[in-house]
Amino acid sequence: FLSNGLMGPGHTFAQAPVIPLSGKIEEQASSQMEAARKLKDTGKLEPAIEALEKLIADAPHSAHVPAAYWLLGQLLTELKKPDEAGPYFRRLLEEYPESDLAPQARLALASALLETGQPDAALPLLLEARAQTTDQAVLLTIHQHLEETYLNKQDHVRAVEAAVEAARLSSEEERKKIEARVRDLLQSTLGEKDLRRIADKYGKSFPADA
Length: 210
What we know:
With 210 residues, the chain is mostly helical. Helix content is 72%, strand content 0%.
């Protein structure tokens, strides 16, 4: 069910065609988007979702549709419904790949896939997101998700590598927590071959010292 709900990597949407809309339709879409944002800001999430769904149904080729997809995904994530949020992030990526919202949608879709137990589908999205950003806050989130993904896949060496990258981008307090977690993983899970691989990669620095 979850795989169908999030539409696996093989599922594709046609890229949305650019169709000029009448000023009246675009104005109505703009009004619907503004109303949805106000509903969200006042905590009325379900009515906001209904308003956005109506916008997409009324004006499927509006310039506001990418933002409507993004906001729908956010609202459903907030409602703890990642299996319903994921398809909206995916539609944004596949129908509007050049949208300014695409990088955020890629990371949000990966998070939804992790939430629904699909690390194999999340991994390529995370690696692509990592290659496309230099924002340290975004990179921190990506490395945290990568650590989780690799742990789910039982790839403990790469989980350690992702955790080390996350530690470099974290506050002092959070860095200590990550390092403690890595030490536990080294002591409890990794065999000699993997420990040697980590020691060779990091020289005298953490986590090679551990």
